[in-house]
Specification:
By secondary structure, the chain is α/β, with parallel strands linked by helices. It has one domain: Rossmann fold (3-Layer(aba) Sandwich), CATH 3.40.50.150. It is 37% helix and 23% strand. The protein has ten helices and eight strands. Strands 1, 2, 3, 4, 5, 6, 7 and 8 form an eight-stranded mixed beta sheet that branches. Helix 1 runs antiparallel to helix 8 and helix 6 runs antiparallel to helix 10. The chain is elongated. The two termini are 28 Å apart.
């Protein structure tokens, strides 16, 4: 299976340090889609959204092309994990009531993914694209993270990341739009948890591959100076939620 694999080598860190989607997101999807139908969680990674959706939907089929990600996935009796791509899911035609892609659509072959959605989704199915933007942390510690993200690691972000930066503006869905509520993710993290999250960025992995641990160690030192007590601080990520009715 050929795909742009940015996370297999850091799958364990991805599972340990990624923020969790808010319950309000799952509620919004359940209110707009048939909870007795089947969900396809596309590019599910380690299943963070999959298990949350399973609390409100009858069945979730969660697919990802990276076996290393699936190996880290959280188990749930109503979630079935499968290794498959967004463009060739192996799902039955007209079988899906909700297609959800969380922090994943920017990696898809977009025209082929749309064709697959047309094939597998029932008429009236909800299609949901979810993405979180750059984290917001106040003060000098936030400035250090912003500098690392844009300047130090900036050249190492894969091309697909651009879609996140511009709010999925170029990922056009050909179906009628459905209004989505304003949402955000929040977390109270220590400095070390935040560093773990940064270590799970695709750009950080590529930077370390190219230059060794030095740049990340420099961030650690700068963040320690700006946040010496390592006590939890509040972080937030604005959530982009785009919905359409197939």
């Amino acid at each position: 299976m050929s795909f742009a694999d940015h996370f297999s080598q850091i799958a364990t860190r991805y599972a340990a340090y990624r923020p969790h989607y808010p319950p309000a997101l799952v509620d919004a999807l359940a209110e707009r889609a048939d909870p007795t139908g089947v969900v396809w969680d596309v590019g599910c990674g380690n299943g963070q959204l999959s298990v949350a959706l399973a609390e409100r939907f009858r069945r979730v089929i969660a697919t990802d092309p990276a076996q290393a990600q699936l190996d880290e996935a959280a188990l749930h009796p109503r979630v079935e994990y499968r290794r498959a791509s967004a463009e060739d899911s192996g799902l039955s035609a007209a079988s899906i009531a909700l297609v959800a892609a969380a922090q994943a659509a920017h990696w898809f072959d977009w025209p082929r993914f749309l064709a697959e959605v047309e094939r597998v989704a029932v008429p009236g199915a909800l299609v949901a694209l979810v993405s979180y933007g750059n984290l917001v942390l106040e003060g000098p510690a936030g400035a250090e993270i912003e500098w690392f993200h844009h300047v130090v690691a900036g050249p190492y972000w894969p091309a697909g990341r651009r879609h996140v930066e511009i709010g999925y503006r170029d990922l056009v869905m050909p179906w009628p739009a459905v209004e989505a509520p304003p949402l955000e993710m929040t977390a109270a993290w220590t400095r070390d948890q935040l560093l773990g999250y940064v270590s799970s960025w695709s750009a950080t992995a590529r930077l370390v591959d190219a230059h060794g641990p030095g740049p990340f160690d420099a961030l650690r030192a700068a963040l320690t100076a700006a946040w010496p007590d390592n006590e939890p601080r509040n972080l937030r990520w604005p959530l982009l939620v785009r919905l359409a009715r197939r």
